[in-house]
């Protein structure tokens, strides 16, 4: 079974999401055009577009009317992009490069970067709840999708994880703290992506729970591999600074367990994730391939 | 007709909204408790609670089941609070005091202030879309309320206005630019508040348009009076720095028109706002009193 072209699969959905950005994220007024330019700069800066791929692959288990998913996949990628812009700010991780390009605040200044992030976060909800561009999504589904996004992205999810990450720089990392950070900073939104596929595909509650669990496991594995790549990769391969987490005393898996044991943990997590979706049969193939990629990726 | 106690009216709803904050904005995990503390610091810092009052007063024209409005009024005040935290940041307006208390970043640091703002913005949507705490709001109404909030608060609304405001510091203010800034930075969200009352009260489309127009006019008048108070008031009366806008070359009405003409414009706007709601009869009394207050307030 080596006939699955994951790069092509992910690229296919990435293109749809990027087309949506181009058509939807446009300036309504000359006074805000600089803001929209800054938003589009970060949206267009590439990246793996992994979250949209997780949404589409999960949805494919339950339905095949993929077109109606595009605005939702775009909304989640937009929310992810806001979090990168704010994380890179001088007061936060103070990063000059992201995906091989200067970070938003390096190009547009701090004030604009803060506002671009705020506007993108708001935009994610606007898109999900926009009846005109989502004629085939019923209101209860819209509300469920947007509510769960808010929970996954807020103080009980992603932002809570980022906060704990900033705090942890000041202390020696403990297992429990590192688990909290990874689970919330990264895995929370990826778990949401996998669950969203089941929500939009009218899955049962048990399916939503299954997909969320699958997403949490690959999300956690993704972050563990991130920690490993930070110490084993080169800046060129990664397109961002390396060794930075370790230098700053960040709470990472490699700091706790070293590279080998970290990779073993990631391997177990992806195996568990695959076991969750395998019972769904052939339609789960993309979910399985994404789980494998998370473990084997080199950047 | 001097028997209306506006202070009591506004305080009555403020208390409900503040009770809601206390019960809902709580930490789910010790790792994020510092974040939630920072969120609650700014939520509890007082303020006029004008936006909730506008929502309740507008709703009162259409319905009297006020209890179901509380989470929505709280959500809008939460969103307003996020915008104050981010506006006060060193990279933005760099304010040390707000409502007579040190600003969020002065107490908790910049990183936490950015994240607290992000979490509050996200929380506003979470609250509006939470089925459990809004058992009497149907999904289409939820989705409409949250969608319109996103439009009013994002790049086409409040954030767009704040961006234009930052940009305008670098140039001489023009009438058209100042109008754009005030309309978007301040009036957009207050117009939304007035419209929201009609949305939640099952008003007709014409009612929603009327209330939005009323809200836009009092919102604009509110900002014009703000500009006037910045040059005529004392720091003690306002509870924040004064003369700062003028010193920084901010785009204000007073810079364009002077104090007297600015007050005449504000007076016309409130008269127009009152004329819009008067046909709704006795139920519009609170809306009328709020419009008068906007013009006459001293802080």
UniProtKB/TrEMBL annotation, chains A, B:
Q: Which GO terms describe its biological process?
A: terpenoid biosynthetic process
Q: Does the keyword Transferase apply?
A: yes
InterPro entries hit by this protein: Isoprenoid_synthase_dom_sf, Polyprenyl_synt, Polyprenyl_synt_CS, Prenyl_diphosphate_synthase
Q: Name one GO cellular component term.
A: cytoplasm
GO terms for molecular function, please? metal ion binding; prenyltransferase activity
What is this protein called in UniProt? Polyprenyl synthetase family protein
Bilayer-spanning residue ranges: none
Record keywords: Magnesium included?
yes
Q: Which residues form a coiled coil?
A: none
User: So which domain of life are we looking at?
Assistant: Bacteria
Q: Which UniProt keywords apply?
A: Isoprene biosynthesis, Magnesium, Metal-binding, Transferase
Do you know which Pfam families this protein is assigned to? polyprenyl_synt
Q: Which family does it belong to?
A: Belongs to the FPP/GGPP synthase family.
Which metal ions or organic cofactors does this protein require, according to UniProt?
A: Mg(2+)
């Amino acid at each position: 079974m080596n006939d699955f072209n994951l790069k092509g699969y992910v690229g296919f959905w990435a293109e749809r999401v990027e087309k949506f950005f181009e058509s939807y994220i446009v300036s309504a007024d000359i006074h805000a055009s600089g803001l929209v330019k800054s938003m589009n700069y970060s949206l267009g800066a590439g990246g793996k577009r992994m979250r949209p791929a997780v949404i589409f692959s999960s949805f494919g288990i339950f339905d095949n009317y993929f077109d109606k998913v595009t605005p939702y996949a775009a909304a989640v990628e937009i929310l992810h992009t806001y979090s990168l812009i704010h994380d890179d700010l001088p007061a936060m991780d103070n990063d000059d490069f992201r995906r091989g390009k200067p970070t938003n605040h390096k190009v547009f200044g701090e004030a604009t970067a803060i506002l671009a992030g705020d506007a993108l976060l708001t935009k994610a909800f606007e898109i999900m709840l926009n009846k005109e561009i989502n004629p085939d999504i019923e209101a209860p589904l819209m509300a469920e999708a947007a509510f769960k996004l808010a929970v996954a992205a807020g103080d009980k999810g992603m932002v809570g994880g980022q906060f704990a990450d900033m705090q942890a720089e000041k202390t020696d990392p403990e297992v429990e703290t590192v688990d909290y950070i990874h689970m919330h900073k990264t895995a929370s939104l990826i778990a949401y992506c996998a669950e969203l596929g089941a929500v939009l595909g009218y899955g049962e509650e048990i399916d939503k729970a299954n997909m969320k669990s699958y997403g949490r496991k690959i999300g956690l594995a993704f972050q563990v591999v991130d920690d490993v790549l930070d110490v084993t990769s080169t800046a060129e391969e990664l397109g961002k600074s390396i060794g930075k987490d370790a230098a700053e005393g960040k709470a990472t898996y490699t700091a706790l367990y070293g590279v080998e044991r970290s990779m073993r943990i990631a391997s177990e997590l992806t195996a568990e994730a695959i076991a969750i979706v395998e019972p769904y049969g052939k339609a789960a193939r993309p979910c399985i391939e994404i789980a494998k990629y998370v473990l084997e990726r080199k950047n």
